[in-house]
Amino acid sequence: EAYQKLQLGQMVAKVKREVEHFAELDTFDSALRLRLATAYLLMKRYQESALITEDMLEDMPPDPVVESASVNLVQSWNAIERWSKAAEAGRLFAEVFPQSPKLPFVLYLQGIAEQRMMDYDAAVATFQTLANQQPQSEHAPRGMFMQGFTLLLAEHHPEAIAAFDAFLEDHPKHELADAATYWRAMGFSFDKQ
């Protein structure tokens, strides 16, 4: 019995030390939540991942873990086609992490969400922001292309043609160049020119 009390006392002391150690880690809670959200994301349970992440972002101060979680949040909402939530998460990301190297990707996803909500003006503005503020990003050409395509959807044909012209001038060898040429021609057809 004395030995069991000693063992129990040692275990309690060890647990207390570990809890104190975890409390000292600034990112422990956010890292744990991110792991859980990522596990759900990998299981393609996007809604659960998004809900955990969204709750996390409301409670946590901005840090690299929260930044990664914010990107996952936009991706999760897009995956389950919760466009308004995805767009809102994208705007929040841009506000909280304006210098993030992940911002171009988030802006692209935000623009897609706005386009799917048929908020064409917002989508065009987001794609334009991506192309203008992040021109060196790998997502900038796609943003330029999507700006033209969204203008076509909004039936702003002359502006769409101009956007595709700009895309083709800046990125003539991009993988979307053929598609841009096609949709540029469709813009003339839709505009009856």
Describe this protein with a few key phrases.
mainly alpha; elongated; 193 residues
What do these coordinates show?
This protein is mainly α. The chain contains ten helices and no strands. The chain has helices at 2-24, 28-42, 46-59, 64-79, 83-96, 103-116, 120-133, 140-153, 157-170, 177-190. Helix 6 runs parallel beside helix 8 (140-153). The longest helix has 23 residues, at 2-24. It is elongated. It starts with a helix and ends with a helix. 37% of the residues are buried. The mean pLDDT is 89.
In short:
The protein has 193 residues and is mostly helical. The chain contains 10 helices and no strands. Helix 4 (64-79) runs antiparallel to helix 5.
List the helices and strands and how they pair.
Layout: H1 2-24, H2 28-42, H3 46-59, H4 64-79, H5 83-96, H6 103-116, H7 120-133, H8 140-153, H9 157-170, H10 177-190
Helix pairs in contact: 2-3, 2-4, 3-4, 4-5, 4-6, 5-6, 6-7, 6-8, 7-8, 8-9, 8-10, 9-10
